[in-house]
Amino acid sequence: MREVSVLDSVGEPAAHGEPTAKERRFDEIEAELAELCGQRNAIDGRITELLAEVDGEGLLQGTGVKSLEHFATWQLGCNRGRARDLAAIARRLEELPVTTGLLRDGLLSADQVAVIANRAPAGTDQDYADLAQLATVSQLQRALRAERTRPDPEPAAPPPAPPERQVSAWWDDDDTWHAHLRLPKTDGAVADAALRYHLDALVNEWKHAHGASKDRHRRDDTAPPFPTLADAFLRLLEHGWDADATARPHGHRHTVVLHVDVETRAADLHLGPALTDAERRYLCCDAKVETWFERDGIPIGAARTTREIPRRLRRALEHRDRCCQVPGCNATVGLHAHHLIHWEDGGPTELWNLALVCPFHHRAHHAGIIRIRGPASRLRVTDRRGRQLTAGGLARSPSGPPIDAEDYRHPTGEPFIEHWFQLPSLS
């Protein structure tokens, strides 16, 4: 039998025990990746230090930035998930010195450290730092979930507060809409019951229209698909939309009733407190405004209801702006239609004089923290110091040598079983 030789990439027989050209190239790529990943991790470690300083010293005040996550999203050019992870690491730098030290040295990635920063209990820094150097991100997540479900050997403590309600929705690259809903147990039970109710209704309608004896798994070209939870979800939304439209057929926000002194222009809410000039302008930007003019506390007349954004104009504004127009803020829910030239100063309720802004930045503008100037086609947003805010991040070409860091050693990738691993500090 003829001996079969192993050929390398150039077609030459490889000597027994010596790496081929492809294997040598793979080793070179691995070495370079390890070096680059170590530098990237060290850079992420320095970024979290800067974020921690910004957060701890209160340096974000007066910049129009909502939170540390918002600042990271804007300045680093990253998505919200990445920004949340970096912010979580920054907030626990002092509490997790070993783990974050390995990040600064390049030996752990920000994704690995973020899992620990988001979930690890106090006092487990060294334990999870040791595990993280061998485990993948998913294995770390499984280990932390296992610890959270393990019975507490200490005396029973007061039950923890229920998790915060969270809903996120986004459009994917394939033009499909995704949503993620996270509710505590009691709220989840209500939502699940509502979905099941609408699913049962759809199933009964399907059976009534296409015969109760039809098997849902039997192919029938004349019948529509059997109802699913997705259909029930859409039915739930439609019923909620119809009920809301019936209750508020023309409103987008609320009707504001103002009492204004004709001499001093001082205003107060109907049966409510007095308003500053900024508060009065904020409330009147996108609402029905019923104004009562007074002199010496006595009503002398009422103006017609004004300044509601018409439904058609609101739709055109949403189609044009899509999200909050303050650079770095991509909020899309609960937006206000802001008058760039206020209607008290003669600004019309027209498309060129309107811009969508989120409630946070709308209040920030009227409080003087940021300034939003128009027209809408040439929108300019500045902070309290007059610096223009731009949507671009801070990234630029490096001007110095790479950060000196250790080569990153990737996780071993071995199969991971939860009961093999137990934290000494919690056992």
Give a structural overview.
- A hairpin with a 6-residue loop joins strand 10 (370-373) and strand 11 (380-383).
- The model is unreliable at 1-14 and 249-254 (pLDDT under 50).
- The strands form four sheets. A five-stranded mixed sheet has the order 5-4-3-6-7.
- It has twelve helices and eleven strands.
- Helix 2 (68-76) packs across helix 3 (80-91) and helix 3 (80-91) packs across helix 5 (110-119).
- With 427 residues, it is of the alpha+beta class.
- The chain is globular and about 95 Å long.
- It has helices at residues 21-56, 68-76, 80-91, 97-105, 110-119, 125-132, 137-149, 185-210, 229-247, 277-284, 311-321, 359-366; strands at 166-171, 177-182, 255-261, 267-269, 274-275, 288-295, 298-302, 336-339, 354-357, 370-373, 380-383.
- The N and C termini lie far apart (61 Å).
- Among the domains are: 21-149, no CATH class; 186-205 and 226-248, no CATH class; 255-302, no CATH class; 311-383, no CATH class.
Itemize the secondary structure elements and their pairings.
Blueprint: H1 21-56, H2 68-76, H3 80-91, H4 97-105, H5 110-119, H6 125-132, H7 137-149, E1 166-171, E2 177-182, H8 185-210, H9 229-247, E3 255-261, E4 267-269, E5 274-275, H10 277-284, E6 288-295, E7 298-302, H11 311-321, E8 336-339, E9 354-357, H12 359-366, E10 370-373, E11 380-383
Helix pairs in contact: 1-3, 1-4, 2-3, 3-5, 4-6, 5-7, 8-9
